[in-house]
Amino acid sequence: MSTLTIASAREVFDLLREDLVAVEQELGRDAASSVSTITEIAEYLREGGGKRIRPSVLLLSARLLGYSGLSAIRLGSVVEMVHTATLVHDDIIDGADTRRGRPSANTTWGNEKCVLAGDWLYMQAFKVALEERNLRILELLIGLTQQMVEGELLQIQKLGKAVSEAEYYDLIFRKTACLFSVSMRLGAVLAGASEAQEANLAAYGRSVGLAFQIVDDVLDLTATEEVLGKPVASDLREGKATLAVIHAIDHGTARDRQTIQRVLDDRSFESVSRERIQEILSRNGSVEYAMAAADHYAEQSRQALASFPDSEFKRALLWVPDFVVAREK
């Protein structure tokens, strides 16, 4: 039995420092267009930061199997561009005013320009990926993009409805976990992984991605606006029922269900306060239920690495689910 310890945040940062600097430089080059508005929007989004967790897991996946090279840097930029494109489109669809504590791009440049900039980022990601001359990579990215678009459409269809847990998990796989899973697969493909290795790394990415989104949804309900960088309970106000809310609907009283449904119907907290919703969630243990689900997927992701030999890169991958579950924003 392995006695491998989990890396610390500092160790992971030191391990990936040079690669992530290279990814950031690649992003700067890749997101430049001859049309100045696209470059301005892309640069604004890049400067907004973010955790770069998707390029990080791609790099760690490749390194775990002994690959290091420019292709991992290039594809790290690709997955971050895909992620950024989805955020731009999400903000437009949701009518969001803020993103990571700053005005969202659409509040500055308008929806029309931003939707086109998002489209450009998608196409630029594929153009950069094409430099690999690898059909498997393109197949993964095309499938990913289709899943994410389908997820967004499904979510729009289900707005205002008390979805089931199964529907919720399908949505968050398409919208979030699929990108984590494909990021791990891309690293595996670069390293020439076996089918079994690629499948295990994809399973790791799926579980980490599910945990990430569950925690994201919990934070939307429990964090402060100052920490979150956007209004609290935005999801519920937009008509989205996330895991803690679904649990409260399934396990609360008839009155609890009616109260939550009123917010989903009204798309506002005018007739029902946020505090009232938080009281319902607290009384039904719904936040704890959702966090237990996140812990479950974090553990699943660690189990998916069991067959890989011990290394500093495996230690770093073991750290990621801990970071995902413990984060505050």
Polypeptide structure, described:
The structure is a single chain. With 329 residues, the protein is an all-alpha fold. The chain has one domain: Farnesyl Diphosphate Synthase (Orthogonal Bundle). The chain is built from 16 helices and two strands. The radius of gyration is 20 Å and the shape is globular.
Q: What is the tally of beta strands?
A: 2
The SSE order reads HHHHEEHHHHHHHHHHHH
The general outline is globular
Strand order, sheet with most strands? 1-2
For the biggest sheet, the summary is: 2 strands, antiparallel
Helix content: over 70%
- Our measurement of the CA-to-CA distance between the termini, rounded to an integer number of angstroms, reads 35 Å
Q: Please report which band the strand proportion falls in: under 5%, 5-15%, 15-25%, 25-35%, 35-45% or over 45%.
A: under 5%
CATH class: Mainly Alpha
- Helices, by number, come to 16
Give the CATH architecture: Orthogonal Bundle
CATH-defined superfamily: Farnesyl Diphosphate Synthase
Number of domains: 1
Mean pLDDT: 94
CATH topology: Farnesyl Diphosphate Synthase
Radius of gyration of CA atoms, rounded to a whole number:
20 Å
Low-confidence stretches: none
By helix and strand content, what is the structural category? mainly alpha
